[in-house]
Every structure is written in structure tokens, then in C-alpha cells.
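Workshop exercise sheet. Pairs work together: one partner reads the sequence aloud, the other fills in the structure field after running the prediction. Swap roles for the next sheet.
Pair: D.N. / O.F.
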Amino acid sequence: MQSHPDGESTTEIDRLITQINDNQESLLSQRDQEAVIQANNTKNIVRVGVVSNFILLVFSSWLIRDDLQARRIAATALEDANAQLEAKVQERTAELVKSNQALKKENLERRWSYQALDHQFRYNQLIVNSINELVFVVSKALNISRVNPAVTHVTQWQPQDLITMSLDRVLQLPQDGNANPMIAALNEGREIQERPAVVLLKDGSSLPVRFNLVPLRDDNKVVGGVVTVRPLPGNSPRPS
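Structure field:
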């Protein structure tokens, strides 16, 4: 260029250098814009990530709080249920204890009642057995259900032979053409006093007697009767 100075060549070189600088500046500016855009995109992504994480954190916190609240409600309900169950168990236990005590008292009273009835039955049996007169306990149909030892002593019939036997086979009343007055008396619930009759002994002989009939009542209902037979003084068994 010094040996051939040329103004146009220098100008062209300056133009090319300027163009290269402009191109470089344009590229740098474009790269700066791209970097800014990329930085903005990165910021936006980071912001979106932070917001998403915050939303997820809030949602997780809400779920955890809701789960904890549900657990507390369930625990409270369970405690209430256990308390109610315990109260019911205690109430039922108290009822069972009370029922058991009442049952024990009832059983004790029933046992005392049975003992009293047994004692009363024994006393009655002793009283009946001590009577010298012949005693027959009969149903309304005049079937013998019980006798005292005096019957066996006088008639020689054993109790097992007389039980369920009709009284007519042992005690015969005078024939007057009417029905047995003892059945009518039991049906009407009235007594018979000092009526004549004959007791048939096991050996076939008979014994003149006098008898009384007293109805047996249960709740004001006649269920049978007691026949007491008294041999007449000075009479001895005679053949039938």
C-alpha cells in the first residue's frame, strides 16, 4: 500500500472493516438478546417451579392437616365409643350383679319356703299319723290317695293296696237307693258329720263305724276330701 498508494483501496478496506465490526456487533447484540431471552425463560421456569413447589407444599400441608384432623376426629370418636362401651359394660355388670343378688335372694327365700313346706308336711304327717281314728284322703271321685297307720292297724290293708282304690271298696254306706252322699257333698263343698257306715277288713269281716267328711280346698276350689272313720265302742269285726 506504501508503494502503490491507492485511495480507493483504503476506502474499500475501511468499509470492509466497518462492515465486519457491524456484523460482529450485530452478532453480539443478537447473542445478548438470546441470552436475555434464555435468562428470562430460565427465570420463568424457576418461578413456575417455585410457584408449583409452593402450591404442592400448600396442598401437601392441607392434606396433612386434613389427615391429622381426621385422625383426631377418629381418635375422639374412638374414645367416646370406648367410654360409652365402658359405661354400658359397667351398667350391664351392675344389672347382672343386681339380678344375681335378686336371684340368690329368691333362691334363698324359695329354699326357706320349701323347707317350711317340708316341715309343715312332716308336722301334718305326724299329726295325721298320731290320730287313732282311721283317716282317708280321697279325691273328688273318692279315690284313696293317702291313709294313716290306724287304717292298716284296723283293716290290715297295706297303704300300697289302698292307694288309688275307690273308698267304696273299704267304706260302705247304708243303701238308700240314692247316689253316694259323699260325692254330692264334695261337689257342693259341704261337710258330713257322724254318718253310719261299715268298714270292710282285709279278712272279709266288717266293722260298724261312724265317719265324717271334710272337703279339701285349694284357692276356694274343692279338690278332694278327708274322711275320718271312728269304730263304734264295744264293736268287734264281724264276718260279712
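Discussion prompt: The radius of gyration is 63 Å. What would you look at next?
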